[in-house]
Amino acid sequence: MGPDERTAPSSEVSKPPVALTAETEASLDAIGSVDVLVGIPSYNNADTIEHVVRAVSVGLAKYFPKHRAVLVNSDGGSSDGTAEAVSRAVVDYDALLIRDQQSQLQKIITPYHGIPGKGSAFRTIFEIARRLNAKACAVVDSDLRSITPEWIELLLRPILDDHYDYVAPYYLRHKYDGTITNSIVYPLTRTLYGQRIRQPIGGDFGFAGHLSEHYLDQHVWESDVARFGIDIWMTTEAIASGARVCQSFLGAKIHNPKDPAADLAGMLMQVLGAVFALMESHHSVWSTVQGSKAVKLFGFQYEVGVEPVNVNVERMIAVFQQGLADLAPIWEQALGKEIVGELMTAGSTAASDFRIPDDLWVRVVFEAALAYREHRMAREHLLKALTPLYLGRTATFVLETQALTTKEAEGRVEQLCDAFESKKSYLVERWNPEPRA
Q1: Rounded to two decimals, what is the model's pTM?
Q2: Confidence band (pLDDT; 50, 70, 90) for 267?
Q3: Beta partners for residue 168, in sequence order
Q4: What DSSP state is assigned to residue 432?
Q5: Neighbours of 310 (CB within 10 A)
Q6: Residue 109 sits in a domain of what CATH number?
Q7: From the DSSP assignment, how many helices (H) and strands (E) are in the chain?
């Protein structure tokens, strides 16, 4: 897809503009238009956002000195001085040997309106990008410790120079970091849409200005997408709309990784809810896709030290086994007796021999998607009931990769992806085009 052939927004009638503050409106009038925009959503990130703003500022000055640029901080009502930290973040460009920038970076610091959450913050950023007619945009998390100025070039250059529409991040992560991505979201998204975007729920990405309008025109802003699930929603919408997608290697993303058995039930519900809802919206797209293809990866790939992630396998297996004891009837309703019978067999083995095989796991995920589609039970109950299953599969991955390096463990993820792709016909054939209400 060339720069003049990009997919137009799917909605025939544009939705009304997002409400902005009078101060923000005045800033937009004064700025007029820009070439590039970088958005930073935030909520009480005063301790980290100043570093992020400086990295963005240097990246824009170093790599895009002749482009009119604006930085937008879309804040959720921080009470810790986040806005002040954004305002005071300054850069000594001479010390960095940067002397070619044409103009001072403009900053817009604004609250967002709507349902509290990252999605609503993004909606405000999209609206500002639309109003300023930005050609290329990037969004980065406000709590990054590993961001460098090079990230800004890697997220924007493919759009400005190579006419890509969406740039997903490619991070190096510890083998036990990102287990929701590794065990469900990457294999499933790759299988559905045929694009091997390794981190489809990464929080930092680039997108062409015209995608802002497409995103704004979707009817999701009063749903949980506005609160959660925005990253996978954006990636999937980009692919499904026919956008030209790529990835950029950003090195390590240093954040606060969590034990996969701790505090991830909520995230699992949010992400899977978004993935399953998108499957319904884009059935006509994914049902005809066969196989998958590599996605262009920009950037110099290098080895970096990644933060270790400590996991508690015994706890994960215990949660899975407790699920078998407490949730078997619910699992049977959602997944069927045959699958639950195989899960029972897996749960009866010694901890050292515990396994949920790839083939079984693929059927669990596909049946969960079908159960969501067919309203076999309340969707919230279904999503909650999947947590012990996910932890059982994560325990399997840990036990199978304990002796492997992170790079070697990646091969195990690829095997799982192959299993998903080989079973796609199972999902396509059983997908009911007219589920009961």
Answers
A1: 0.91
A2: confident
A3: 247
A4: -
A5: 9
A6: 3.90.550.10
A7: 18, 10
* Three-state SS at 134: coil
CB-CB contact of 45 with 144 (8 Å): no
Question: Domain containing 380: what range?
Answer: 313-430
CA-wise closest residue to 71 among 86, 82, 81, 88: 86
Nearest to 163 by CA among 295, 37, 4, 3: 3
Burial (CB count <10 Å: 0-12, 13-18, 19+), residue 376: buried
Nearest Cα residue to 101 out of 109, 115, 91: 91
**Residue pair 73/108 in contact by the 8 Å Cβ criterion:** yes
How confident is residue 160, by pLDDT bands cut at 50, 70 and 90? very high
pLDDT in tens, 281-330: 999 999 999 999 999 999 999 888 777 888 999 999 999 999 999 999 99
Rounded Cα gap, residues 186 and 180, in angstroms: 8
- Name residues whose C-beta falls within 8 Å of residue 385's C-beta, 6 or more positions apart in sequence: 323, 327, 330, 331, 334
Mean pLDDT for the stretch of residues 366-381: 96
- Token digits of residue 379: 């969707």
The reply to whether 319 and 255 lie within a common domain is no
- Gap between the Cα atoms of 380 and 76, Å rounded: 26
> Is the pLDDT reported for residue 340 higher than 70?
yes
Q: Which two tokens stand for residue 31?
A: 């700025």
419 and 330, same structural domain? yes
CA diameter of the chain? 68
Backbone region of residue 163 per phi and psi (left: phi > 0; alpha: psi in -120 to 50; beta: other values) = left
Q: Is residue 78 part of a domain?
A: yes
Identify which of 76, 80, 20 has the alpha carbon closest to the alpha carbon of residue 47.
80
* Count of residues making up the chain: 437
| Tokens describing residue 215 | 């995103």
Tell me the pLDDT tens digit for each residue of 59-112.
999 999 999 999 999 999 899 999 999 999 988 888 888 877 666 789 999 999
Do residues 63 and 96 touch, judged by C-beta distance below 8 A?
A: no
Does some domain include residue 89?
yes
**At how many degrees (to 10) do helices 186-193 and 406-422 cross?**
40
Q: Are residues 169 and 95 in the same domain?
A: yes
Look at residue 6 in the predicted model and tell me its pLDDT: 41
Q: 199-249, pLDDT tens digit by residue?
A: 999 889 999 999 999 999 998 888 777 777 899 999 999 999 999 999 999
